[in-house]
Each structure stands twice: as structure tokens, then as C-alpha cells.
Amino acid sequence: RFDAPNTKRGLNGDGIPTGYGYYATENNRDYQIENTVTYSTKLLDDRINTSFLAGHSFQKWEYEDSFVQGENFPSNQLNWLVSAGEINNGRSFYKAMSLESYFARFQMTMDNKYHFMASTRYDGSSKFTEENRWGSFPAISAGWTISNEPFFNVPQINTLKVRASLGYTGNQTGISYSSGQNRIGAGENYDQEPGLAATDIFNPNLTWEKGEAINFGLNLRLFNKVDIDLDYYRKETQDLLSRINVPQESGYRTMLTNIGTILNKGFEVDINTNIIEKKDFTWNIGVNFSHNNNEV
């Protein structure tokens, strides 16, 4: 950008028309690589369907920023910074973060009645120290389609399925690119002398925010028209990534740490029905009920 001397921005701090110009660049790069392999097979005369998935992913984000400012341009036509009589400001910095994951999932269905799934993730984040970088997050679920059993004979009920799941998750979003590192920042200069300073209070125990989720559900279809889904859930999030106040004598106001727990539990009911379903006209009605209790 260039502002000529005859503009308000082209005046220097003393009100003298010198011209003002700056050149800035900003670079965002996001790399992501993901590889998966899947294997499926049938067993016992096709009574059992199984599938297995395994994979690896890697993501890296980089950011670069630079800025140069100059004044005292000899002419409005000479408006690149090489023509500035004085280069009086500038900066440049770089930051990056990365996330690496290994994951696997196994699924099995037997006689279209018994359903099972198990999965796991192993995630590593550059935001944390090497000791706390990796987290393991498994999950398991099972279901039983009772309406497909030979003993089930209720004409009004077309589908009846019960299910349950338990899973663990990890969170490292919402904090800066290297919050768990012992960082020393440059650019803390004084009186034309270079300076370094700690950018934050180092917490060597900072680690993943962890969640545990439990769900019990039921799927019901009546008269080939009414679908009812009932779910009870309980999710507890521990080791919340949050800032706490610290004594100002430390030179800082807050420190990032793992503290606190949030508990969400409740139930949801979804009811959908086809009132009229014809070739040229359809009328559906859907109703949803939910209740949630939140504790911090």
C-alpha cells in the first residue's frame, strides 16, 4: 500500500508530507495426508458380515507473516519501498502445529440381528510436551434387532432394535499452537537491544481434554408408518482446558491448565409418521422431545 504525501495518511508524525508505504505478506499452509485400508469378508455361509478398517493421518498447519514500512518517498510515481528514504518499521514471524493419528475399526453383523463395533484412535498433538502428547480414545457399541428373531411375532411392530455404546474422545482445539510447550518468544526488544521473554507460564502437566460418552437407545417402527427413536445419553468431559488466575507477582494474570468437569445427561425422543404417502402427495409429521441436565 502507498499513501501519497498529499494525503492525511501520507503525513509523518510531525505533520510533514513525506508519503507512507508498507508491504505485507501472509501465508497460510495446511497439509493433510490420510491413508486407509479396508477389508471385508463373510463367514458361516454368509451369516456373518465383517469389515475391518485401519488408517493413519497427518495434518500440519503453518503460518508466516511479514511486514515492512517506509516513509519519505521522493515522488508519487516512485511508490515501492525501495524508493523510501527511511525504513522505520517491520516484523516477521512463523508458527506451526501438527496432529498425527492412527486409527482402526472392526464391525460385525450376524444374521442381521446381532451388531457389534469396536474402534480406537491414537492421536498425538504438537501442542503438548512429548510426555503428554499422545492420547488413546477407544469406543465400542452393540445392537440387537429383536424383530428379526424367529420367536418375535408381533404384527403391529415391524422393527424393534435395542442398542448401547461407550466411547472416549479427546480435545486439543481452542488453545494456541504450542500452549503446552515451554516457549521463549523473541521480539521483546528494548532501547534498540534484542530481547527474549517467556510467552506464558509453562505447565508441564498440560494434556488432552477427555470425554466419556454412554448411550442407550431403542428404534421402533409401528404399522409400517410410525418410527420412534428413544435415546438416553450421559457425557462427562474431564480435564477441561481452561485458564485460571495466578498471582500477578508471577508476571502473568492467568495460566492454562486442565481443570474442571462438565456432565451432560438426558434423553431424546423422535417420532416420525407418514400420514399420507401417495404417488403425487406425501404428508409427514415429526415430533421431537428432549431433556438435558448440565452440571459443571
Summarize the entry for a quick read.
By secondary structure, the chain is mainly beta. It has strands at residues 2-3, 20-43, 48-71, 86-110, 114-125, 134-145, 157-171, 184-186, 196-198, 209-222, 226-238, 241-245, 254-258, 261-277, 282-295.
Uncertain runs? none
Number of helices: 0
**How are the strands of the biggest sheet laid out side by side?**
1-2-3-4-5-6-7-10-11-14-15
Shape: elongated
Strand content: over 45%
Kindly state the number of beta strands.
Answer: 15
Query: Biggest β-sheet, characterized?
Result: 11 strands, antiparallel
Content-based structural category: mainly beta
Output the radius of gyration: 30 Å
Question: What are the secondary-structure elements, in order, as H or E?
Answer: EEEEEEEEEEEEEEE
Helix content: under 10%
| CA-CA gap between termini | 50 Å
Describe the protein.
With 296 residues, the chain is mostly beta strands. The protein is 0% helix and 64% strand. It contains no helices and 15 strands. An eleven-stranded antiparallel beta sheet has the order 1-2-3-4-5-6-7-10-11-14-15, with no helix packed on it. Strand 2 (20-43) and strand 3 form a beta hairpin. It starts with a strand and ends with a strand. The model has no long low-confidence stretch (mean pLDDT 89).
Write the layout of secondary structure elements.
Blueprint: E1 2-3, E2 20-43, E3 48-71, E4 86-110, E5 114-125, E6 134-145, E7 157-171, E8 184-186, E9 196-198, E10 209-222, E11 226-238, E12 241-245, E13 254-258, E14 261-277, E15 282-295
Antiparallel strand pairs: 1-2, 2-3, 3-4, 4-5, 5-6, 6-7, 7-10, 8-9, 10-11, 11-14, 12-13, 14-15
